């Protein structure tokens, strides 16, 4: 269909939007399903794992070896600590292009609505580029532009490079198949990817970014679960149960509601579960830089706000 869009009358192009929305949701599904598989031991054979994971992450421009390093190893072991590459920037961190872009795009009390809208479609790509450039160009872990730099082994770096080349080849193949016409590329390639990235970033923003920094990795203190409509959970493999995922990252996501029930019974005063709309509203009412473990501030350090979810451990 995308190859033929340049032949459509412009008055009927809006009929393609539902297909773009469905494809955009498929980008979200590809990430979340691959994410779950890479946490589990359901698939063990390397000849099956490597091409499957590469296919699942290609539209996200994320080499599987990189994902295992930045997400499984760094983020999950160091969630919302000073060493977590996915956390908010510290106000005390030096100026960098990464910090400037995140301040420009991330939902906060100071964000411009236009830049927020653009950022929802571009922030995933920036996240991928930020971390890829960090490990490929700064082999000693000295990069200043991510929230927290980390190192990968020489073997991992080689695998990341090869996988990134394969991902680029697949993207260029898609573009060549659609043809180099603006309407087909915008509606059939870019728009579905942007919709998918926006859906992914909504979850990523709310998972941890209104929580406190935690020196000890306690999912009850540094993670947030969302209430979303049941059909959304069906579509997205219960990704809204994010605290549950950090407690038991390797289990089948079908069991997260059972884990949630146990957490509510055992830790009713510490478990963080709020409506998705409330989480988003809270992000837009608070600044995004850490002044301390439990205090947010803005770019200039003038606005001082307690973290909405600073519940202490213990």
Tell me the β content: 5-15%
Mean pLDDT: 95
How many angstroms does the end-to-end distance come to?
56 Å
The secondary-structure class comes to mainly alpha
Order of helices and strands: HHHHHHHHEHHHEHEEE
- For the biggest β-sheet, the strand order reads 3-4-5
Low-pLDDT runs of 5+ residues are none
Q: So how many helices? A: 12
Question: How can the largest sheet be summarized?
Answer: 3 strands, antiparallel
Binned, the helix content reads 40-55%
User: What characteristic shape results from the CA principal axes?
Assistant: globular
Oligomeric grouping of the chains = single chain
Radius of gyration: 20 Å
> What is the number of strand segments?
5
Give a description of the structure.
By secondary structure, the chain is mainly α. The protein has a domain at 2-217. It has twelve helices and five strands. It has a three-stranded antiparallel β-sheet with strand order 3-4-5, with no helix packed on it. It has a two-stranded parallel sheet with strand order 1-2. A hairpin with a 2-residue loop joins strand 3 (289-292) and strand 4 (295-297). Helix 1 (17-39) packs antiparallel against helix 2 (46-57), helix 4 (97-105) packs antiparallel against helix 5 and helix 5 (113-137) crosses helix 7 (182-208). The longest helix has 27 residues, at 182-208. The N and C termini lie far apart (56 Å). 39% of the residues are buried. The model has no long low-confidence stretch (mean pLDDT 95).
């Amino acid at each position: 269909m995308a190859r033929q869009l340049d032949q459509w009358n412009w008055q009927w192009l809006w009929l393609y939007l539902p297909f773009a929305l469905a494809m955009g949701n498929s980008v979200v599904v590809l990430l979340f399903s691959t994410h779950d598989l890479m946490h589990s031991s359901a698939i063990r054979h390397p000849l099956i794992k490597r091409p499957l994971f590469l296919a699942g992450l290609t539209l996200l421009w994320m080499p599987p070896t990189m994902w295992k390093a930045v997400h499984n190893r760094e983020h999950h072991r160091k969630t919302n600590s000073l060493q977590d590459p996915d956390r908010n920037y510290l106000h005390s961190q030096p100026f960098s292009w990464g910090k400037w872009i995140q301040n420009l795009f991330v939902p906060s009390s100071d964000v411009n609505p236009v830049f927020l809208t653009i950022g929802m479609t571009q922030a995933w790509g920036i996240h991928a580029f930020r971390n890829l450039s960090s490990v490929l160009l700064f082999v000693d872990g000295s990069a200043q532009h991510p929230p927290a730099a980390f190192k990968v082994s020489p073997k991992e770096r080689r695998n990341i490079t090869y996988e990134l080349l394969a991902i680029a080849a697949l993207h260029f193949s898609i573009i060549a198949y659609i043809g180099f016409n603006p309407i087909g590329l915008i509606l059939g390639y870019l728009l579905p990817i942007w919709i998918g990235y926006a859906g992914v970033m909504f979850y990523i923003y709310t998972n941890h970014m209104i929580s406190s920094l935690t020196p000890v990795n306690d999912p009850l203190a540094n993670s947030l679960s969302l209430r979303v409509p049941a059909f959304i959970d069906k579509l997205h493999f219960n990704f809204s149960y994010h605290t549950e995922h950090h407690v038991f990252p390797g289990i089948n996501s079908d069991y997260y509601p059972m884990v949630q029930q146990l957490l509510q019974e055992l830790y009713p005063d510490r478990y963080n579960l709020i409506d998705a709309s409330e989480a988003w509203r809270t992000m837009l009412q608070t600044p995004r830089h850490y002044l301390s473990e439990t205090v947010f501030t803005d770019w200039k350090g003038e606005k001082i706000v307690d973290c909405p979810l600073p519940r202490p451990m213990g």
